[in-house]
Amino acid sequence: MAGKKGGKRKKKVETVFLVCDETGEYNYTLRRKSGSEKLKVKKYCPRLRRHTSHTEKKK
Fold first, then answer.
1. Residue 5 CB contacts under 8 Å (≥ 6 apart), including other chains
2. pLDDT: is 1 or 23 the higher one?
3. CATH second-level architecture of 13-57?
4. Comparison of pLDDT for 1 and 10, the residue scoring more
5. Collapsing DSSP states into helix, strand and coil, what is residue 19?
6. pTM of the model
7. DSSP assignment of 17-57, as one string?
8. Are 21 and 52 in contact, with CB atoms under 8 Å apart?
């Protein structure tokens, strides 16, 4: 059995950041599959101390 290659392939995953639309700060990081559409989510912004919309951005 030595030399037998098998197993699962690794999925291509990229690190993306969620940026607050109002302050422009990078508040959250995610690891996502590449090729999917951009996220736009309401998340908590610590600077404003309330929920604001955050968009996905690559660094």
1. none
2. 23
3. Single Sheet (2.20)
4. 10
5. strand
6. 0.75
7. EEEETTT--EEEEEEEETTSPPPEEEEEETTTTEEEEEEEE
8. yes
